[in-house]
Structure formats: C-alpha cells, structure tokens
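Quick note —
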Amino acid sequence: MLEKEFRNEDPSGKIIAFMLLIVSLIGGGPFAVKLGLQGIPPLKMALFRCILGIIAVGGVGLYYGMSMRMRFEELRRLLLIAALYALHTITLNIGTQFTTAARSTIFFSLYPLFTVLFGHFYLPNDRLSATKILGILTAFGGVFLALMPNLQGSSVTAYLIGDLIVILGACFLGLRITLTKVFVQDIYPYRLLVWLLGLNIPCFYLLSLIFERDKPIEWTLESTAGLLYQGWIVTGFCFLGLTWTLRRYKASKLVVFSFFMPLSGVLFSRLFLGDEMTFGLLAGTALVAVGIYLVNRQS
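Predicted structure written out below.
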C-alpha cells in the first residue's frame, strides 16, 4: 500500500454527469473503429491515433502554458504506464481475432473489477466494501443481459483462447488505471498522457512495419472520420477527462461508469444505423444505472 497522501474524494453530481458524457462518447469508439478499418490497417490506425492524441492533448497543455518536459524521476513510471497501454491494446486486438466481438465486449468489460481489486491494495481510502462489490457485479450483470442474445448459438470452448486473452487485456487495463491514479498525483495529466502516447508511437510503428508492410492505406471520408473521432474525441478529450478525474476522485467509484460504454456503443449504433431497441438492452441499461448508484452511494 502507498502511504502518500492522495486526493481521493467521492464524485459529485456534476462529475457523475461528466463521466456519463465521457463514457457515452467512448462508447462510439467501436463504430469509429469500424469506419477507420475500411481504409486503414489496425496497427497503422493505432499509430495515427496516438499522433492525433498527442496533437490534441499537447496542444491544449501548451496553450495553458504547461511544461511537457519529462523529468528523469518520471521516466520509469511513464514507461510502465506506456507498456501497460500497449499490452492492453495488443491483447484486446489479438484476443478479439479468436473470439466474437460480442464475447470480447463482455469479457473486456471485466476491467473495472480488476481496477477495484488492484485499488484495494494500492490506493489509500479506496477499499472494497460489500455495497461496492454488489454495485460492480450488478453493473456487469446489466452488460451481460444486454449482450446475451449475441452469445447464443456458439460453443463456449471454441472461443476459450480468445476469451482468456481478452480477459488478460482487461487485467492490464485495470492495473494501468490504478497506477495512473497513483502516478497522476505527481505527474500532471497533460504531461502523463502526452508521454504515454508518445512512447507508444515507436512501438506501433515497428509493429506496423512488421505485420502491415504490404497493407496500404486508403484515405476515404469514412476512414478519415473514424480516425479523427478516435484520435481527437476518444484519445484526446475523453482520455484527458478520465485522467483529470482520476487525479482527484476515487478510482473505484469512477471506473464503474465504464460499464456503460458497451451499452452506449449499442445505443450509438441504434441511433446511426436505425437498429431496433430490445427489452434486454433497456433492462441492461437499468441494471448498469443501479450498479453506478450502489458504488457511488455514500457509506
């Protein structure tokens, strides 16, 4: 456990509304990925996403006169955060190739459970409680209920390897969020995000050279729009907003909002693709709302 003093407050009503906006926008990320993949290979898209994110976050930071210079004592922590970012991205992509998209969404949504578990050991005044655990399980139950129809008709064992790799990716992300909460106490969010993205640029560049050398980029309106959404809305605005809130508020009470992401993604596709709403989706959304309430209820 870390002994240093943390800003570890309970989120207010305004912060809860802000978090719902953030996760709703992130929920549109899979739709943007589908658009981007129409013309851009996945590793190249990850590379461009990091570049666009640096432009957005670094530009805002420089506008407000914030120093982006890395201090020597920050290097090891930034390398660790950047490595976890790369690991959770790579394991998610690889795991999804060996399972279905719906199963990947379900199992990757386990990362708030890992975040709360790691936070219990690493974050002062952010311990597990019966109500908090009940809220997280209720929220995950809502996600499962909403997406359960997509899991039917396939053998569970056929996707076991992919499922396990995706769960590993969720574990990496949960650890990254917990350590971000720790490190952001000393490293300002703008600088942390700039270096997290910057240190991953050579990683994704080398991977794209190895695995996507013969895959050209086709710049279309759809692929460009999808890439811009990922780079500026998700990586820029949303990641910065999440990191800023982690600096001040309890990680276990913020991360539960992430359960709304897959549901908002479905709602996003309903809005733009005209798909029919289902009872399972509405009931699942209600359970997620109950779970968020339980986790954020004052003890």
